[in-house]
Design brief:
Length: 346
């Protein structure tokens, strides 16, 4: 391996780690109600850092009357922005490397798509603040963050393949699965279906969070002591045409709308769990135990975190772990799909 191969690979590794941190910081900012800790963008009350001196506090009060400085929330927001800026620099480097490579095997377009996505994410970050946590934008910002992390991870896998580094997992997958009686086409199709359902579920989770519907069902497995609450209003809860203008900190939906969102998120969790369990069983039968165990463990962890959040009334550390678990489950599914498609090349 030459430096020309290793440096982009290591840069991509760093980008994946940093993207994971950015996603976690974004979740913490949202869960700690710090999304408007800085009422402007990209600065904070017009400064590059959170105002702290007396003079800066006076200027902040003049620029944004009626919006007092809350240092803890401001720093939560700004640290998230600093980390996102660093991630943007790394992705710009990866895109520049892609443009400079003449090797047709190099995933050039992949790195350019990442560059476009990080620019779009920056815009969503701005709109999250300027539109005062409008749920549609907050949900898209969350989805964009997870998508960016997933595409970075996929780029890492492709760069690893380009360097001809065959991991133990890929070597272990190659022969047993191809020799089994499980159709590779069926496995791929089911993995795609599970991934699609998971994307919808992540979007529902973002919608639940952005509309402050997590506490709408304080019990489990029922919701307000009912399996299917008669008072919930699905039309109100899933209305994506909410007006732009009011401050959405704390949410604007009524109780029945929030209950509907929470219940639908639970239904989505059941569907995703069913799809992933079937995939795990088929992978196990195909004698790919490492993949099956890893994917199954990620699913069990995520379900347990979701249930624990309800029982302990959504403490921030558990809610943050639940967000992180969703991203890990997504990356695991993408890994499964990648190796299922790599089989024909191994």
């Amino acid at each position: 391996m030459t430096a020309k191969q290793v440096i982009p690979y290591r840069a991509c590794w760093l980008a994946v780690v940093l993207a994971s941190i950015v996603v976690a910081l974004g979740a913490y900012t949202r869960l700690s109600d710090a999304g408007l800790g800085c009422p402007d963008w990209p600065g904070c009350y017009g400064f590059a850092i959170v105002p702290h001196s007396y003079e800066h506090m006076v200027l902040a009060a003049e620029r944004f009357p009626g919006v007092p400085v809350e240092s803890a929330k401001g720093w939560a927001e700004m640290v998230h922005r600093y980390a996102a800026g660093g991630l943007g620099v790394l992705i710009c480097y990866l895109a520049a490397v892609g443009l400079s490579r003449n090797d047709p095997r190099y995933p050039r377009w992949h790195s350019l798509v990442l560059l476009c996505m990080v620019l779009l994410q920056a815009m969503f970050g701005m709109w999250t603040v300027t539109l005062k946590l409008w749920p549609q934008v907050v949900t898209m910002h969350l989805l964009g963050g997870v998508s960016l992390l997933t595409l970075l991870f996929l780029l890492l896998l492709r760069l690893r393949t380009l360097m001809h580094v065959r991991t133990a997992l890929s070597a272990q997958v190659a022969s047993p699965l191809l020799e089994s009686d499980i159709s590779l086409r069926w496995l791929r199709g089911l993995a795609w279906a599970a991934l699609f359902m998971l994307i919808i579920q992540v979007a529902l989770g973002g919608w639940t969070s952005s509309n402050y519907a997590a506490m709408a069902c304080p019990d489990f497995p029922t919701c307000q002591q009912q399996w299917w609450p008669v008072t919930m209003d699905i039309g109100h809860g899933m209305n994506v045409l909410q007006h732009v203008g009011p401050n959405y900190l704390g949410g604007q939906l009524t109780g029945p709308g929030r209950v509907a969102i929470h219940v639908l998120h639970r239904v989505g969790a059941l569907l995703v769990s069913g799809g992933v369990i079937v995939l795990v069983v088929l992978l196990w039968r195909a004698r790919v135990q490492a993949m099956a165990v890893t994917l199954g463990a990620m699913l069990v962890m995520q379900v347990c975190l979701g249930v624990a959040n309800v029982f302990w009334q959504f403490p921030i550390f558990l809610a943050l772990a639940h967000n992180t678990g969703a991203a890990l489950l997504m990356l695991t599914l993408v890994s499964v799909l990648y190796y299922l498609y790599r089989l024909r090349q191994l």
